[in-house]
Specification:
heterodimer; A: Rossmann fold; 6-stranded mixed beta sheet; 4-stranded antiparallel beta sheet; B: about 300 residues; mainly alpha; ABC transporter involved in vitamin B12 uptake, BtuC; two-stranded antiparallel sheet; about 5% strand; globular; transmembrane transporter activity (chain B); Branched-chain amino acid transport system permease protein (chain B); cell membrane (chain B); membrane (chain B); BCAA_transport_permease (chain B)
Chain lengths: ~240, ~300
């Protein structure tokens, strides 16, 4: 297979929250159709990296190229309009909206989003919970499915998923894993932040390890078995 | 003459009607305050001054340009709404990340400036504004006399209140607004131009206040201080109804108007304080207000 086109290229990304300098020159790239994971300990800068791509940090410098266009100076709504969708760690289900309103909230930014029936096919639980329930009456797993489901119909090609398995039961984690794999088959590109290394190891084509706001190492899927020892050390698993 | 609980029926119903009229203005104003607080996180102390501006713009339009009541009902809110948008863009938008107190102080200062400016040019005595021909006169309902203009005020404000409520609770735009109340940042990360939405929300809520002002112009005299007394009561109503609850503000606004009317009939001495007594009781029993949700 030929080398796939690079869809996201992050270079020398620095980011600040107020006075505190959180990212110190992050470099990585994601190719079209890949699932890439950002690994690292708590506070290493993984979530900040995703938030910086969306423009949700105080200040950032460096370069974020998506689809051959520079994003570093764009506000979050403009970044989203270019075709990047974000699923935050806390899931961000709106309590004052019904499940259906939550699902339909993110506006369509491009053609080619998943039609609603396909989203239900991916997450059958959502359909059952649709009738009238408010967003926060859902279980943690259902909230996660809703949080991922709602960004699939927007036409965004690149999905940023922040800790999609956090706090979920193993059977739900498996279900989320299967959905991410299915999303890859459907042509989505996924950038994943994970604490759950075993989850990420099964899904991602490539991994970057972030520490103190920098990328300190990278692994191909096949490297993982042979380099498990050093990886465990880096992540403190 | 028929009496109810020792009070002549026409007196009771007359006071109830005045209560409903006041309640209509309360509802329109507290609705706007609730929307502004929910979406912008700003306690808009200038709301009373902007209500006054609505009435004054209608009066000025009539006296200088000969533009009558019906066009003013649209044009005055539009002018004041644009004025609000300028305030939001140039000043309020710089305070969103700060404590509520800054927005409150800014808008309080703006209220003083706006009212002071009008007092400087027009004094405090007030200008009469006649209702349109078609709404003069009234009907004898048997148990009371119903002035046509007052009936119109109640109907018009109810329509606008319910329309606004439907807009927020039942439309896609309203879903964006409600979502932005909870998490502005995420709504923006979905691709919605949240700053623009906040600007338009402020303009819209301010236009509602001005609309109430135009409705009020023929009922009260048009005076630079007409918003001052009202705004304090309206803030008490917002506290009673629960900050950020739209339906709550509408129902509480009408309800408090009626309670004031009843108090005026049965125990007139308490009529101007009853609102604050209710506010104190509600704060003790339900600190988030009758319709409010706890905020984190």
């Amino acid at each position: 297979m030929s080398v796939r086109k690079t869809i996201l290229e992050v270079s020398d990304l620095n980011a600040w929250y107020g006075e505190s300098h959180v990212l110190h020159g992050v470099d990585f790239e994601v190719r079209e159709g890949e699932v890439v994971s950002l690994l690292g300990r708590n506070g290493a800068g993984k979530t900040t990296t995703l938030r910086s791509i969306m423009g949700l940090v105080g200040r950032r410098t460096g370069s974020i190229r998506f689809d051959d266009q520079e994003l570093i100076d764009l506000k979050p709504d403009k970044v989203a309009r270019r075709g990047i969708a974000y699923c935050p760690e806390e899931r961000g289900i709106f309590a004052s909206l019904t499940v259906e309103e939550n699902l339909l909230l993110p506006p369509v930014v491009q053609k080619g989003g998943l039609p609603i029936p396909e989203i239900y096919e991916l997450f059958p639980n959502l359909k059952e919970r649709l009738l009238g329930a408010s967003g926060t009456r859902l279980s943690g797993g259902e909230q996660q499915m809703l949080a991922i489901g709602r960004i699939l119909r927007t036409g965004a090609k690149l999905l940023l998923l922040d800790e999609p398995t956090e706090g979920l039961a193993p059977v739900i984690v498996q279900q989320i894993g299967a959905s991410v794999r299915r999303l890859q088959e459907l042509g989505f590109t996924v950038l994943l932040v994970e604490q759950n290394f075993h989850f990420a190891a099964r899904l991602a084509d490539r991994h970057y390890v972030i520490e103190h706001g920098r990328v300190v190492d990278r692994y191909q899927r096949d490297d993982i078995k042979t380099r498990m020892g050093e990886l465990n050390e880096l992540l403190g698993v | 003459m028929q009496e109810i609980l020792g009070v002549p029926a026409p007196l009771l119903f007359g006071q109830l009607l005045i209560g409903l009229i006041n309640g209509s203005f309360y509802a329109l104003l507290s609705l706007g305050l609730a929307v502004i607080f929910g979406v912008l996180n700003v306690i808009n102390f200038a709301h009373g001054a902007l209500y006054m501006m609505g009435a004054f713009v209608a009066w000025l339009l009539l006296h200088h340009l000969g533009i009558g009541y019906w066009p003013s009902l649209l044009v005055a809110p539009l002018i004041v709404g644009v004025f609000g948008i300028v305030i939001e863009r140039t000043m309020l938008s710089r305070l969103y990340d700060l404590d509520h107190l800054y927005g409150l102080l800014l808008t309080f200062g703006l209220a003083l400036i706006i009212e002071g400016t009008f007092i400087n040019f027009y004094g405090v005595s007030g200008q009469p504004y006649a209702p349109p021909e078609i709404l003069t006169g009234g009907h004898n309902l048997g148990f009371m006399f119903l002035p046509t203009y007052r009936a119109w005020v109640i109907v018009a404000s109810l329509i606008v209140c319910i329309g606004t409520w439907l807009l927020v609770e039942r439309t896609r735009l309203g879903a964006y607004l409600r979502a932005a109340v909870e998490n502005r940042e995420l709504v923006r990360a979905f691709g919605i131009n949240v700053p623009l939405m906040m600007t338009l929300t402020y303009g819209f809520a301010v236009a509602l206040a001005a609309f109430a002002g135009v409705l009020a112009a023929p009922v009260y005299t048009v005076s630079p201080i007409m918003g001052q007394h009202l705004i304090i009561v309206v803030f008490a109503i917002v506290v009673i109804g629960g900050l950020g609850s739209i339906l709550g503000s509408i129902l509480t606004g009408l309800g408090i108007g009626i309670v004031e009317g009843l108090t005026k009939t049965f125990y007139p001495e308490a009529s101007s304080t009853v609102v604050f007594v209710i506010m104190a009781i509600v704060l003790i029993l339900r600190p988030n207000g009758l319709f409010g949700r706890p905020r984190e």
